Structures are given as C-alpha cells and as structure tokens.
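Re: that chain you flagged

S.,

Sorry for the slow reply, it's been a week of failed gels. I finally had a moment to sit down with the sequence you sent. For the record, here it is as I used it:
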Amino acid sequence: MIIAVFPGQGSQSPGFLTPWLDVDGARDRLAAYSDWSGVDLIAAGTEWDAERIRDTQVAQPLIVAASLLSWNALDARDAVEGVAGHSVGEFAAAVAAGILSEEDALRLVGIRGRAMAEAATAQATGMSAVIDGDQDAVVARLGELDLTPANYNGGGQMVAAGRVDALAALAETPPPATRVIPLAVAGAFHTRFMEPAVERLREAAESVQASDPRTTIWTNRDGSAVPSGRDFVRALVEQVASPVRWDLCMGAFSDAGVGGLIELSPAGTLTGLAKRALRGVPSVAVKTPDDLASARRLAHPDA
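Prediction finished late last night. Pasting the structure tokens below so you have them in one place:
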C-alpha cells in the first residue's frame, strides 16, 4: 500500500515555492488558490521572509497550496491507496481523497488560519517540542504545568502547548531524558485556547459540500479510517482545539500494510518521523519538482 501524507504548520521555509513555479499550470493554480484563501501565495512562497510566512494566517494556506500543487504534479492517484494529513495538512488530504474541492479546502483553511491567529492573540501562548523520554512521564509533567500534549508525533516526539510561562518552566525543568525545543508558532494550537476558532470554522464548514472519500483517509483525532466525508469535515473542525494523534495514524499505516510513503511539499517532517516509527518503510519527501520522479518510481515500481 502506498500512502500519501501532507505536512502541517512549521514545514514552510522562505522561497520554497520558487522551483514549483516552473511546473506547467502552477502559476494559474496558485493564483486561484490565492483568491480562495485570501493570501498572495505566490509572493508568500517566493519573496516573503521567515517571520512573515510564520504568521498563522499565511502559513496555513501556503502549506495546503504547496501540498496540492505537488499532489497534482505527482499525478499518481491510481497508485495511492491511502492518505492522511498532519494538522492543517488534513485539508490537503481531504482534497486528495475527494472529500473537498480545492476551492472549498482553500476557503476553509483561509478562515481557519485567520481564526486561529486571532485566537492566539487572546493570551501569551506557544508550543515546544519534547524529544525522547518516557511518554507517560512527559504527559505527567505537562499536567503539573497545566500544559497540553497537543501533538503526539510518534518516534519519540511530543509537542507541548500552553502559556509561555509554563513552557519556560518546562524548559527549565524538563522531564527526565528529554530535550525541550521551543517552536516558532504564534499560539497554543490544538488546545482549549483555540476554542473561539472552532466555532468560526464550524459555521463556515456547514456550507461546503462533502463527498465520501474515494480512498482510505485516516483522521488525526484517533488514527481511525473515516468512511464518511461529512464526518471527516466535522473532525477537521474539532481538530483545531484537539490533540493531533499522528502516532496513531502511523500505527494505522503499519496495520494497513504500508509499503511506501510519499510526503508532499513542503516535505521532510513526516518522512523524518516515519524513519523512526515505521522503520524499513521506503519513503520519498517531495520537496521540489526534482523529487517527483523518485515519488513516481515508488508509486509505480514496475513502470
């Protein structure tokens, strides 16, 4: 089974879209994506600096647009038997599975980014990666500090989220055998601090047409496969304020017999996690158009 995965926020970097503009039709697609999302994605992906594209309302549509651009360029739908996205990457996965149209996905992710950016201004919050250590001990320490395990990324990585003073205390006195690395994000995503954004996204999502998936799609909620398009959209909405269980998604990939993993642009994070959690499974990170040939060979080994 070949599974396509779509990255989340933090995977972007300045200028990463530049090589994709040489792909046929890319500029026209990005122009449409920009109109739908309310962000100048060509400028964001080719000209803007790291600080500017770190802004949640820019980063989220930029990442989804890049994923869809590379997904269309890959043109391997016949070989991909399952899809999943990490956090905002679930919107690109929903398009790849046929649940949402590109227009609906970009409109919703534009709203999501703006709503989450606004929610993040209410209190001084953030996120930090916690690397290695015993998971139960890490969760216990987060509970002591009133922090939330926002991302269970697998491969010995968890992300803590909450007030910045609590994150500072975590860095000062981390759980045994761990490293704590502050993340360059604007707020405590996937926690109770994002509840205002959930309501705004829910209202917007009620007006979209959701089709049932044409391929297996797993949800960040609990790693389960979701057969209903409408149920998947509901999970997309609720995920804004709920932990990302990428560890359970990777467990589901293993149970399904994954034979290869293709991560779409801006790639690298999810294939890195898979190298630790899905040892021996071949993977390709599609960072630039030059990587498409390797991804196609993984999808069609006998071609």
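What I noticed first: The chain has a mean pLDDT of 95.

Talk soon,
D.
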